[in-house]
Here is the input.
Amino acid sequence: MKSGSVILELQRATHATLQLLTTELVDLDLTASEINALGNLADGVGRTVSELGAAIGTRPATLTGILDRLERRGLITRAPRPGDRRAVLITLTTDGVRTAALIRQTLDAVEQRALAGLAADVVQAARTVLLALTEARR
Amino acid sequence: MKSGSVILELQRATHATLQLLTTELVDLDLTASEINALGNLADGVGRTVSELGAAIGTRPATLTGILDRLERRGLITRAPRPGDRRAVLITLTTDGVRTAALIRQTLDAVEQRALAGLAADVVQAARTVLLALTEARR
DNA sequence: TATTGTTATACTCTATAACTATA
DNA sequence: TATAGTTATAGAGTATAACAATA
Here is the structure.
């Protein structure tokens, strides 16, 4: 065992699932990043640009363009955050809630299908490893 | 437990490790995709464009540009594959071997550092899940 | 005819730095 | 002065379709 690199396997899995997701959600006409953003907002909790950027791994400058398109399509709104007007709070619109729910649904379906044969503790172990890699520092 | 989506956590971990990697390897002046390609070629086994594309999750049309830059920098060579001259066999040059080795070394170091506290069977479980997600079909 | 890879096009993502507005 | 986000720019990744060479 223990042949390849976990990190290379990680990137492989990410590309594969991303491609599968955009294929299944092709009718929404959204990019992978847009799907990722909406998927993270799906819980209905508003987030600032920085917070969302940290969650999906994109810088604020990149996120601006993604949010521009989502806003233009009426899926999110941007508003200054009460208490600190420098920050921008991103919230799903009614349409956005519906779209995000569909994304989460598809996400869960893909996940269940892919991991159907695996024991719960195996999946839980994977979560632990993913979290450790996410928090890796130099 | 079991709050978020494994797939969203997967993408988060990928972004984080990718960013860490390019930071640690900034002296090589390579993009994430170039690092990914070289990391996959590091075992010294030649691969066709299709094979490498499948390994790193990019389409042949995308890979062409990545390979163009790696070839221009003298890290890989392209040659028709004996037996099927339609296919292009990608091989590391001497410089490429050295660079790929450094990448694998850094990859392993990041991985060891991040997963230091975790039991071997937890990491192995994560590999199983990553493989299952990589092979997910609709 | 089918397959492998490249090219062409248009759009999206990315990094960096400069900028605005708030704090 | 510092922070949050946007804008500007240039380069890289992406999907799709059309194409040449080979099978």
